[in-house]
Design a protein that fits this description.
Helix content is about 5%, strand content about 20%. A five-stranded mixed sheet has the order 7-1-4-8-9. It has one domain.
Length: about 180
Amino acid sequence: MGSNNMVADYACIAGAVAGLIPSYSETRVVGCSSGGSCGGGGAMYGMSRTSLNSITDGTSNTMLVGEVSGAINLNESGTTCYRPGGPYGWPMGTGNGTAGPTSDRLFNSTTVRYGVNVKTGYSNGAGGIGTDSSQNYPLGSNHTGGANVVLGDGSVRFLINAITLDNLARLATRDDGTILPGNY
């Protein structure tokens, strides 16, 4: 007899991998079990206690949660429905209880590494995409042209597929010093 999982279509935004934002040095990134990078520069990294005061870019310029629905294509297994929670579903939470972004199993969160709705070109375990807690799963949806995110001020924004990776990384980082214009 099989079991049912509560697979989430949303993930917390832990930050962005280092090197995506020109002239900004991200140092709060560690390696993770899926071969990816776990961020700590966002508002909702593992075991975080982020205060509003630490979101210096402003709550309307910082993502908290994003859509991660829709299947991606892993080269060796075709189109598969993986999520940042792995096969465990939403209740899994943070893995080993380590404070900060240093847990190697941060379920149900993602660190920006790829553009919105990038669904192809992945290998299992490579680049933070795989069967077990995919820390770099791309924001994406089954909507045409983009995906929804929730910002720190409570508003919902539809990010188009064409958003540049550096602007996506800026939205994922709470204190990079860049305020983006209203249209990304």
